[in-house]
Structures are given as structure tokens and as C-alpha cells.
Amino acid sequence: MTGPDPDVVDRGSLNCREFVEIVTDYIEDDLPRAARADFDHHLDVCVGCTNYLDQVRATIALSRTAVLRGTDGDALTQSAREALFEAFRRSRNA
């Protein structure tokens, strides 16, 4: 799986580095309309950043599950723990 390419600059008005910098604002729906349109366009043309966004969302979902179950590390199921570690591994290799 590929991740954002920090050297990509020809993906419209938003490059991969800029994409990564505002991904949290996108997820939280805090981007102005024009910036969101640029972000969406970048998603349409960049598979690496699409994968990155999916990984960030998966990490957030797993973290939310852990918080809902409590802060005790033993509260995580083995499959949830493995999924979280896999998401981190993928993001490091991206």
C-alpha cells in the first residue's frame, strides 16, 4: 500500500504534503468550502493520499473503540489490538 508522496506537486492546487497537513481539518469538517474542494479533487487523483486518509480514519475508529472500553490496555480485544498495530505499520510504510 502506498501513502502520500511528499514530493508530488502536480495534483491540482493541493500537493501531498499540504494534504497531510490538513487531513484532520477535513475529517472534522473544519475546512472552508474552497479548501475542501481542493482536498476532494486531490483524493480523486492521488491513490496514496486516499489510502492515507483511510488509514487515519481507521486509526481514529480504533482509538475511539479503545476509549469507549476504558483506558485499561487489557480492555482491547486481541483483534482490535492487532488491527491498531497494523494501521500504524501501514502508515509508517506509506
Automatic annotation (TrEMBL):
Residue ranges annotated for the Putative zinc-finger domain, each copy included: 16-49
Keywords on record: Transcription, Transcription regulation
Pfam families according to UniProt: zf-HC2
InterPro entries: Anti_sigma_zinc_sf (IPR041916), Znf_put (IPR027383)
Annotated protein name in UniProt: Anti-sigma factor
